[in-house]
Structure formats: C-alpha cells, structure tokens
Amino acid sequence: MDTNILDHLKTLHTAAIDARNGYEEALEDAEGKGLTSLFRDMIALHHGNAEELGALLINAGETADDSGSFMSVVHKTIMSVRSLFDGLDGSVLPGLIDGEKRNVSKYDDAIADAGAAPAVLTTLTAQRGKLQEKIALMEQQNAAYEAAKA
Predict the structure, then answer these.
(1) pLDDT digits (tens, 9 = 90+) for 35-64
(2) H-state helical runs in the chain
(3) What are 83-103's pLDDT values in tens digits?
(4) Chain CA centroid to CA 146, Å
(5) Alpha carbon of 141 to those of 12, 85, 95: distances in Å?
(6) Is residue 66 within 8 Å of residue 49, measured between CB atoms?
C-alpha cells in the first residue's frame, strides 16, 4: 500500500482514538445529564472507526497504535473544564461540530489519495458518511438548543 495512504490511515486512526477518548471523558463528566446519548453514540462511532482503520493498517503490515496522541489529553481537559463551568449541555455542540468537521476534512484528504486502493476507499467513504450524519444531527440539536434559549 502507498505510504501516503498509510500516513492518512494512521492520522485518521489516531484522530478517531483521540475523539473517542474525549467523548468518554464527556460521558463520565456529564453524569447522566445533558448530551449523554450523543456522547455514547459518538464513542461507539469513533471506536468502530478506529477498529476498522486499525485493521486496515494491520493488513498492510503496519502497527495500529491504540494510545492516541496528545490531543486525547487536550480533548479530555476541555471536556472536564467545560463540565465544571458550563455543564455539558447544548452549549458544547458548536465545538463538537467544529471538531467533527475537521475530522471529515481529514477523510476528504485521505479519500482524494485512496483511488488506487478500492477497499480503503470504501471504508473511508462509509466512515466519512457516518460522521456527516452525526454532524447533521448535532447541527439540528444545536439549532433546537439555540431556539430554546431565545
């Protein structure tokens, strides 16, 4: 497999782990209130994506590092601080949406380079689609939250 694609897969794998870790912290800090359902869904989505991406890396003879990156610490810290001061309600949605859109952008880059690897392209396209669906749901929730505040 092309080293450029492998780099994309590693980046996406790490990003999925970091996002999952951040949502796990949010779920713990939410204590059953606020957006716990969304946090659970996003944990499951990013966990599944990380597993699939890890399998692609292993099949290519690479190591799938499940430790994430420094961004895991950043995501966890942001969620903990937000929980302390504002709670983890609809006010966190714009930040979550922004983060997931950055993840979609990483998929766009990878998909643009994955043309020669049909199996990889299929996985990346499916994962990107699932992320887009969750973003649309978060945007709907954010609109409802904003309308309720007005």
Answers:
(1) 999 999 999 999 999 999 999 999 999 888
(2) 3-30, 36-59, 70-85, 93-113, 118-149
(3) 544 666 788 999 999 999 999
(4) 23
(5) 26, 21, 13
(6) no
Residues 6+ apart with CB under 8 A from 143: none
d(CA 146, CA 12): 31
Contact of 75 with 25, CB cutoff 8 Å: yes
Tell me the Cα Rg of the chain.
16
Q: How far apart are CA 72 and CA 106, in angstroms?
A: 17
Distance, CA of 108 to CA of 128 (rounded, Å): 8
Q: Walk me through the domains of the chain, giving residue ranges and CATH numbers.
A: 3-149 (1.20.1260.10)
Cβ 22 vs Cβ 128: under 8 Å: no
C-beta separation of 68 from 17 below 8 A: yes
Q: Measured between alpha carbons, how far is 17 from 107 in angstroms, rounded to an integer?
A: 15
Angle between helices 118-149 and 93-113 (to 10 degrees): 160
Using CA atoms, how far apart are residues 15 and 131, in angstroms rounded to an integer? 13
- Verdict on whether the full-model pTM lies above 0.85: yes
